[in-house]
Design a protein that fits this description.
This protein is of the alpha/beta class and 245 residues long. It is 50% helix and 11% strand. It folds into two domains: 157 residues, Rossmann fold (3-Layer(aba) Sandwich); 77 residues, DNA polymerase, domain 1, CATH 1.10.150. Strand 4, helix 8 and strand 5 form a beta-alpha-beta unit. Helix 1 packs across helix 2. The longest helix has 22 residues. The termini are close together. The model has no long low-confidence stretch (mean pLDDT 95). GO terms for molecular function: phosphatase activity. This is 6-phosphogluconate phosphatase-like protein. It holds the Pfam family HAD_2.
Length: 245
Amino acid sequence: MPQITTLLFDCDNTLVLSEELAFEACADLINKICEDRKLDVRFTGSTLIKEFVGQNFRGMLTSLQERYGIEIIPTDLESYVRQEEDAVIAKLQASLRPCEGVDEQLEKLSAGGKYLLSVVSSSALRRVRASIEKVGQDKYFQGDVVFSAASSLPKPTSKPDPAVYNFALERLGKKAEEAVAIEDSKSGTLSGVRAGIKVIGYVGPYEPEKKDEMIKVLKDAGAAIIMNHWSEFPDILAKIEAGEV
């Protein structure tokens, strides 16, 4: 059993409760894009979450083009991506909170010094950094250990593409089998699993009536074990390290 040396944290709704705020901020922009292209479809923050959770904004626009047969030229797409980033960061800086119980675990992990801690997100790097700084988690992720599928890669992508995990492992000088990832979405879980990493599926931020469904979704996507609250993390990690999961 390879020793676990590295913990890879998704950011949105895994470290910080950002998904709802972010989707509210980008719903207005997506609706404007639809309106400009005479598309008879509108989104709210909650319907966007349902349709596109786990994707970054670039990924959403790609899906939107495929689904509705519209074209967004590259210069417009880059402009929209920047506008969305600005709108979301403003919203996060006003209202962002950490996920319940995560700070206590990060504090213990950091003090223990046993694991390399890294953030691996689909979201733009500027947004990820703004998020962890807002809630004071940046002190746990020192150095070049924060990675973004939207910003860090030579070619921007989004989870479920495993590229961002492969890139993070390469940069950190780690192998997939010595890493554990924590993910709350289907696309994030698929991304980690496709990179050969053992994934903990985290369902803490989901509404009670949605949890059972998400447990199934994350398990079906390949999550090795499900975590309901961050207080369960030490026991779950111990099970993984003992080869029980």
